[in-house]
Design brief:
Nucleotidyltransferase, domain 5; five-stranded mixed sheet; disordered C terminus; six-stranded mixed sheet; alpha/beta; globular; 26 strands; single chain; 44% helix
């Protein structure tokens, strides 16, 4: 095994931990053309960087080939090229060191690392590599640099990179490399994005196939693989057995583009193409298959390949650009070919071509033509991603096309290989490289055509239950996911789309409600007697329990008091209002009939009725209170409450009127909501939490803010916590919350929920049962927390008793901060606890501050019950109204008072209601709608029967 850690090994470790392990084992692979190209580019970049740096310093200020130690660095050269660090474990090469001001063991100066890299953009791997060099350099000069410099790209741009505090990331990575060097650990083989350019790619891929590794699936990341491992799933075969098709709910997202990894594994296991859902591929008389090749370093497309197929045959095009200046020229050639055809379908594979066309549109002369191309562009990969599961490890064109029988002349052909070919052509201008690139591009177009045609042919097939579940199309086995489980077929439990209109007519006549009301009612007298016909007109048959005359004394237009009643046939208007009188002994229905005379002003000839009559409420506060109580306290829907009104009180109330109740009551109690919010924000303790909600228009979040006795709910369209700064800017109490990062920036004392923390700890222990380092953190923490909670149980949340644990808490975090862990789980837990050490035990320094977030979580649970029944059907306005009423209900629940009695009292201050202990009494006064609110007689009737009832009511009023 290798005994030295080199710069190459450090760089390999950032790309792949398993690669650094192989290099420690002394193995060497066969470098690809792309890797050789990177080495050549690195050498050219270094020459440019050296020349650029030499121009900034004089000859006596620069030193070459220095061994890093105190004596060599004390000479104080302004810049050092090719520095080396040697010891028993290390043999690391530094591209350069730059002298900067800052006190160190060397004097009033120190050095920062300089790295040369050929990439156009600086990525995370280069930043971490530079930080590891800074850590090694700090051991030689006695000071950790705070920054470094990377020279990169074609222009050899120098970019300053800031390091993390204390070089913590580099310390962790260097510790991992050291443990690999000592053979203390063996990393798990995980394939990643670096594999396609790695010298060990074939060796690692063969081993992964042998192990049936989950990392063979390119869509699975390291985090997801660890999650599957915790569930006991380690291979693709095991993952394939976990797929279970489920019936799609009526309220689920129809446009979902989720990718099921278990189904991909099932396709590989069964060597079958699985089709999920109902894919659609655009069809057209003219089809164009487009593929573009580009140079990512220079950022331009140098080759556009096309295959155009129409009724007359097939044509191939290749547009080549010698330099970046000719990119617009080949794009215009491409547009000229496309413009020959009317409404073509243009297919591509991935987003690269669309991004290229959008970029070229900025400077194109024919923008309308470009827009037509973008409108006709179809991404074949997006169709595959959403609906097709090929028995391949990725959805790349090479794998999918290869599985369908396509082949490439060069076995190693790939996007990375094409970059190497283009670079060879630019340096030699050899036509062989150009011909190879054009051939490769055309073969990609052919593969795209083959894949697209296969998708089109598959879409014409339909799964049937009578035949076999598998079909043969182009030599490939195809199966529909919905046939794997008959319960997954939503079409079996829904409305059937009949081919013939006659079938649909007969089917519609077979529904239960239709036959009860149209067929059986003619033969059964019992059904005919009790059949309930729709319509609000039934309330007109109820005998009125109270009669009220409404008169006017002056004209609302001019103020004249000399009024003339209209003739008897038109002078009376009648409305009915309904209420419930709730007493300790029962509930009684009250029907108020109001009559108003129509007047004409003798002065201005204005005809009118009393404004009180116009604004008369149809449903009084008591009736609406009972309906809201049923909906909020017992979570009954509008239709069940509607049935209860009919069954208990003989009242017919429309569903639209139920929604109006919620809007009116929320408007009435909005002032109560604001008072609750103000009281919570002025209190000593604030509990906060949030949860997701699914609306008809998308997703949003409901936030909960609670004290010990008050609760309010608030809807926000996103989970971003920027609004908290403005809302809590005057809050001086203690905020109790979970570990969501949005709370961290708030300027107030905070207590993190310890229940959340110990649940996360418990899950980590279950996921890593043999991790002794993790146990060494969780066990002392559990003992400390148990002793504090025992004190709370004995004496309550009182500061004078809890302060005895302050020294124990400080000692625990002092020991935890000083320890060094090798386990990833222990390291993550250590970082988390040290980060929040000032917010975990805040409650021991205050009186009456809980150590968990129970109040907010209990309020969230009440909303979650409602969310389950309304997911995807409620609107934002309706949700806001419901949250106002739910806030009042939950506050009444926390205070131990009756929500129904509070509503019936018409009081809008909960504290005043508690102080008065008001008992609801019968209110005989008329209730009016708010000004500007349209009464339900005109806007609340939606059905045809309701409209007819409205017209009948108007005719009856006119007749009277």
């Amino acid at each position: 095994m290798a005994t030295k850690i080199t710069l190459d090994i450090l760089e390999n470790h950032l790309n792949c931990k398993y690669k650094s392990y192989i290099r420690f084992m002394g193995q060497e692979g066969i470098k690809s053309d792309y890797e050789i190209l990177q080495i050549e580019s690195q050498r050219k970049l270094k020459l440019k960087a050296v020349a650029k740096i030499n121009s900034r310093y004089s000859a006596h200020e620069i030193t070459h080939g220095v061994t890093l130690n105190a004596s060599s660095l004390n000479k104080g050269a302004s810049f050092i090229f090719d520095a080396y660090l040697h010891d028993n474990l290390l043999s690391v090469h530094f591209d350069g060191l730059e002298k900067v001001e800052g006190r160190s063991q060397l004097g009033e100066f120190h050095y920062i690392p300089v790295l040369f890299h050929e990439s156009r953009q600086i990525r995370k791997a280069q930043r971490l590599l530079l930080e590891m060099l800074a850590l090694l350099l700090s051991r030689a000069q006695g000071k950790a640099p705070s920054r470094g410099v990377i020279y990169h790209g074609i222009d050899c741009t120098g970019t300053t990179v800031r390091f993390t505090a204390g070089l913590a990331a580099a310390e962790k990575l260097l510790d991992e490399v050291t443990r690999l060097q000592r053979s203390e650990v063996v990393p798990t083989l995980l394939l990643n994005d670096h594999c396609h350019v790695c010298e060990f790619r074939q060796q690692c891929h063969a081993q992964a196939v042998k192990e049936d590794s989950l990392s063979l699936l390119r869509g699975l990341g390291e985090k997801e693989i660890r999650a599957y491992s915790r569930k006991g799933v380690f291979t693709l075969t095991q993952l394939a057995h976990t797929f279970r098709p489920r019936r799609k709910g009526k309220r689920s997202d129809r446009g979902s583009k989720r990718r099921y990894h278990a189904l991909q594994a099932l396709a590989i296991r069964d060597k079958t193409i699985y089709v999920l859902g109902a894919p659609e591929v655009p069809a057209g008389a003219v089809r164009i298959y487009l593929d573009a090749e580009g140079n990512p370093e220079e950022g331009f497309v140098y080759l556009i390949g096309m295959i155009v197929r129409d009724d007359s045959g097939e044509e191939h095009y290749s547009f080549w650009a010698n330099s970046k200046d000719q990119e617009h020229q080949i794009f215009e050639q491409f547009l000229a070919v496309v413009s020959r055809y009317d409404n073509p379908c243009i297919f591509c594979y991935g987003r690269y071509e669309r991004t290229f066309i959008k970029r070229m549109r900025r400077h194109a002369r024919r923008k309308k033509q470009v827009d037509k191309v973008l409108g006709a562009l179809v991404n074949t990969l997006s169709i595959i991603y959403a609906h097709f599961y090929f028995p391949t490890y990725s959805n790349g064109l090479k794998e999918v096309g290869g599985w369908l029988g396509c082949s490439w002349t060069d076995e190693n052909a790939s996007g990375a290989q094409s970059i190497a070919w283009r670079t060879r052509w630019e340096s030699t201008r050899d036509e062989q490289w150009k011909a190879r690139l054009i051939e490769y591009n055309q073969e990609d177009c052919v593969a795209l055509r083959r894949v697209t045609d296969f998708l089109c042919a598959t879409c014409t097939l339909t799964p049937t239950t009578q035949e076999a579940q598998r079909h043969e199309a182009g030599g490939a086995q195809i199966a529909w996911v919905q046939e794997l489980d008959k319960l997954a077929n939503n079409a079996r439990f829904g409305r059937v789309n009949f081919v013939h209109s006659e079938f649909e007519f007969v089917n519609n006549c077979a529904y239960f409600d239709y036959q009860r009301q149209r067929v059986f009612v003619r033969t059964s007298k019992l059904i005919k007697k009790h059949i309930r016909k729709p319509g609000l007109w039934r309330n007109r048959r109820i005998r009125a329990s109270q009669l009220i005359e409404i008169a006017s004394s002056k004209c609302p237009a001019c103020g004249n008091t000399n009024l003339i009643s209209l003739p008897k046939s038109k002078k009376v208007r009648v409305k009915r209002a309904f209420d419930l009188v709730i007493t300790p002994g029962g509930i009684k229905r009250r029907v108020i009939e109001c009559r108003a005379t129509v007047y004409r002003c003798s002065q201005c000839e204005h005809c009118f009725t009393s404004e009180r009559y116009q604004r008369l409420a149809k449903h009084f506060h008591g009736l609406m209170s009972w309906a809201i109580y049923q909906q909020v306290a017992y979570r009954l829907g509008c239709r069940p409450v509607r049935e209860m009104f009919w069954e208990f009180f003989g009242l017919t109330i429309d569903v639209s009127e139920m929604h109006m109740f919620k809007s009116l009551m929320a408007r009435y109690y909005r002032i109560t909501y604001r008072k609750l919010l103000a009281k919570i924000l002025s209190g000593p303790v604030l509990h906060a939490d949030e949860t997701q909600v699914k609306l008809r228009t998308g997703k949003g979040y409901v936030w909960v803010f609670a004290s010990l006795e008050e609760v309010i709910y608030m809807y926000r369209p996103t989970r971003e916590g920027g609004f908290l700064q403005g809302m809590l800017n005057k809050f001086k109490g203690v905020l109790i919350s979970d570990f969501y990062a949005a709370y961290d920036s708030l300027n107030c004392p905070q207590q993190k929920c310890l229940i959340h923390l110990i649940r996360d700890m418990n899950q980590e222990i279950l996921s890593n049962p043999y991790d002794e380092e993790l146990q060494s953190v969780t066990q002392p923490f559990g003992s400390l927390l148990r002793s504090i909670v025992a004190t709370v149980d004995q004496h309550g949340l009182k500061r004078r008793h809890l302060e005895r644990h302050v020294r124990d808490v400080e000692a625990f975090f002092r020991i935890l901060s000083a320890r060094s862990f090798h386990s990833e789980a222990a390291q993550a837990l250590q970082e988390r606890m040290v980060k929040y050490q000032d917010k975990l035990f805040t409650f021991i320094r205050y009186d009456s501050v809980p150590w968990n977030n129970n109040n907010a979580e209990n309020a969230i649970k009440q909303f979650a019950y409602y969310r389950e029944d309304t997911a995807g059907v409620i609107k934002e306005s309706g949700l806001n109204d419901y949250l106002v009423l739910l806030s009042i209900y939950q506050t009444c629940r926390y205070k131990g008072i009756s929500f129904l009695k509070f509503l019936l009292s018409k009081e809008r201050d909960i504290d005043a209601f508690c102080a008065k202990k008001r008992v609801p009494r019968r209110n005989q006064s008329l209730e009016l709608y708010p000004k500007g609110f349209a009464p339900p007689h005109f806007v609340g009737l939606r059905t045809k029967a309701a409209k007819q009832a409205q017209e009948a009511t108007v005719r009856q009023d006119s007749a009277r």
